[in-house]
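ARCHIVE CARD
Drawer: 12
Card no.: 0347
Subject: one protein chain, sequence and derived structure
Cross-reference: see card 0346
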Amino acid sequence: MAASDDAGLPYDAGLPYDAGSPYDAGSPYPPELARFTVPGGGLRVPYGAEADQYGELWLPETGRPPHPVVVLVHGGYWRSRYRADLMHALAHAVAHAGVAAWNLEYRRVGDPGGGLPGTFTDVAAGLEALAGLAAAHSLDLARVAVVGHSAGGHLAAWLPARTRTPWGVGGRIRLRLVVGLAPVADLRLAHAWKLSDDAAAGLIGGTAEEVPELYQLASPADLLPLGVPQVLVHGTADDAVPYEMSVRYQRAARAAGDDCELIRLPGGDHFTVIDPGSPAWAVTWERLSRALDLG
């Protein structure tokens, strides 16, 4: 398993909306985040009994069935005040392009059962739930990719290795591509750099020194190789998840034998990667189209 060094960053890379944010779960987002939410469009389908165990299935507006699927996993440093609606703009864009979008919600830190293990078991169960939706909605389970933003990028990269951990379930759904949009791909570095008020320790329930075995099972960087092609899309001006994390992760992934591409966005910030009107999404969609054989 790969490990990362803990060298410090030359600047403060804390999330702008940290633990001291004046709004809580269910409160409106600030305008810079609210612009990514759009009303309606998805069929809400539970994959568990808890309130946040559901996905939104956005069915294609065009294209011939069975439809390939892009699984979306939102970010927010695993905290409850950030929700699946942050991926609505991307879900709409995916469906408009003729591909089904499966936008996952999951229990987060601050929710009952959130954090380790609930957050992990939820995204694993949410992915596996596609098997029960395929027939009714004409989904092509041979063509599935996952796209995660920020902390959702961490969870997306963890999914291919889920069955090698105590919290993965099933294994019926295989992924053709993992896309990390400014992903928190290395929990040890996130903890060492104290990103977003040490959100990694909040997720795991302890520091890397206290529970190293949990970081080893929860961090994609420690689970390499993933055995699935990966694409990282990251802005150099990201002040929430440093670009340097993706540089180091790509280096480790390639050394472990994985196919891992890093797309550098000069001057790009943390949220340009989830803007469907941005060049960042255009290059992301090109990689997804290729992986899903969209022609």
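Annotation on reverse: The mean pLDDT is 90. The two ends are 36 Å apart (CA to CA).
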